Predict the structure of Cytidylate kinase.
Amino acid sequence: MDTAGRPRDAVVVAIDGPSGTGKSSTSRAVATELGLRYLDTGAMYRAMTWWMLANQIDPGDPVAVATASGKPVLLSGTDPLAPTISVDGADVSGPIRSEEVTAAVSAVSAVPEVRSRLVELQRAAVAAAASAGGIVVEGRDIGTTVVPDATVKIYLNASPEARAARRNGELTGARAVGVEATREALVRRDAADSGRKVSPLAKAEDAVEIDTTDLTLDQVIEAVVGLVERRRRERNLG
Ligand SMILES: Nc1ncnc2c1ncn2[C@@H]1O[C@H](COP(=O)(O)OP(=O)(O)OP(=O)(O)O)[C@@H](O)[C@H]1O
Ligand SMILES: Nc1ccn([C@H]2C[C@H](O)[C@@H](COP(=O)(O)O)O2)c(=O)n1
């Protein structure tokens, strides 16, 4: 066992950063390549937000959100090839990506009771994955709060313009609002996520920052896999 009580060969990779920097794409690919589990904590905050909206709870009312936050039963599947998220037994992987949820998620995720409940579930997933080799966990506060003793911490960043262009490329039909509107929405959400009182979006002091603006996704994956492998070698020598 290591000092965190995990099997000595278990690896926990924490990947944080603003929206659209490539956290999900990178995390899934790294977990697949290294045979690790994968947890998308943003999907958990989205699922909580989806439940609040579905139950007519105003996301702008922190007291109502806090009071209800213990009710939904959230379950995250951690297979990087087929991650799942359900609420009260129903698959919500599609609905949590709606514009309505995206617009409300920063307010819901700023409520301390929501965070303490989800951080507890996230730590349980990390503990469960430790006996299966480890896990890649992505979010906003993984390196600072959820797993401060992670084996490797990465902070992905990219210019708002590059992130907006990437996100806009994914949107079709009525959702294709244009790069400028996408950029404004990203910057607004980053400001709310960085400005909240409890575990805001932040780079851990010991995280390695990777600016992905001019890198391909493959280059980012290669850089992260390289950092994990180097840490593993150092640990085996130490
Ligand atoms: N280095 C890269 N170069 C070009 N496109 C990229 C790169 N990394 C990710 N992408 C693309 O950018 C989009 C956003 O990536 P992804 O969903 O992984 O970001 P994210 O940080 O998880 O975002 P969010 O926090 O909003 O969930 C996707 O379409 C993805 O394919
Ligand atoms: N660890 C986390 C992960 C996510 N959030 C909040 C803030 C984000 O705007 C929102 C959605 O995340 P995304 O799907 O864009 O990765 O969830 C958080 O507060 N802490």
